[in-house]
C-alpha cells in the first residue's frame, strides 16, 4: 500500500526543530517542495503543472544523533540509508557562526570539523583512517574549498568539487 502524500506544512515542526543547537537539513522531495513554494509567486505559470507540492515522506540530512533525537521527539518511521553507514560526507555548515574556514565531515554517527588551511582537527572526531582521508582530500582541494568557503559566506552557489573517494 502506498504512503499518502504529505505537504511541507505537515512537517513544519520537524523542519523548524533545533536539537542541541542543530537543525536538520531538508533534502529530497520536500526540499524541492519548499523551493517551489518559495518561488511560486515569481514563476507560478511554470510551476502550475507540478501542483500540489507533495511528497510521501521527508528526507533529512544530519548526524545520526540529531536524527535519533528528532525521531524520539516526533515519532514516525526512521530509515538510515545503508550507504550512509560507511560513507564519509563532507560539507559546509553554519558559515555565519565561524570565521575560520573549515569543513564538517560525518562518518557513521560521528562528526569532525577540519580547518581548510592546514587540515587540523577543530572539534569532534571520526575513525582515524577516515580522518586521514578527509585531511588528504582537504589538502588536494584546498584552493577550491577556500573559494567555496567565500561563496558560502556570501550566500552564493558553490563550485562542484571532486568528492572524497
Output the keywords.
6 helices; alpha+beta; four-stranded antiparallel beta sheet; 165 residues
Protein model, in words:
By secondary structure, the protein is α+β, with helices and mostly antiparallel strands. Helices cover 34% and strands 18% of the residues. It folds into two domains: 6-74, no CATH class; 82-153, no CATH class. The protein has six helices and eight strands, in the order E-H-E-H-H-E-E-H-E-E-E-E-H-H. The strands form three sheets. A four-stranded antiparallel beta sheet has the order 5-6-7-8, with helices on one face. It has a two-stranded antiparallel ribbon with strand order 1-3. A two-stranded antiparallel sheet has the order 2-4. The chain is globular, with a radius of gyration of 18 Å. Residues 83-88 have low confidence and may be disordered.
Amino acid at each position: 500500500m502506498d504512503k499518502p502524500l504529505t505537504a511541507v506544512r505537515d512537517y513544519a515542526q520537524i523542519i523548524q526543530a533545533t536539537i542541541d543547537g542543530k537543525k536538520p537539513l531538508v533534502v529530497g522531495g520536500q526540499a524541492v517542495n519548499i523551493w517551489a513554494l518559495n518561488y511560486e509567486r515569481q514563476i507560478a505559470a511554470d510551476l502550475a503543472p507540478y501542483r500540489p507540492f507533495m511528497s510521501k515522506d521527508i528526507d533529512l540530512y544530519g548526524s545520526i544523533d540529531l536524527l535519533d533525537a528528532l525521531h524520539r521527539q516526533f515519532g514516525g518511521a526512521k530509515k538510515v540509508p545503508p550507504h550512509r553507514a560507511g560513507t564519509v560526507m563532507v560539507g559546509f555548515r553554519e558559515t555565519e557562526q565561524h570565521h575560520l574556514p573549515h569543513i564538517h565531515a560525518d562518518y557513521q554517527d560521528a562528526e569532525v570539523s577540519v580547518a581548510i588551511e592546514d587540515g587540523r582537527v577543530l572539534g569532534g572526531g571520526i575513525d582515524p583512517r577516515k580522518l586521514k582521508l578527509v585531511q588528504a582530500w582537504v589538502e588536494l582541494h584546498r584552493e577550491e574549498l577556500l573559494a567555496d568557503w567565500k561563496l558560502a559566506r556570501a550566500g552564493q552557489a558553490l563550485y562542484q568539487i571532486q568528492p572524497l573517494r
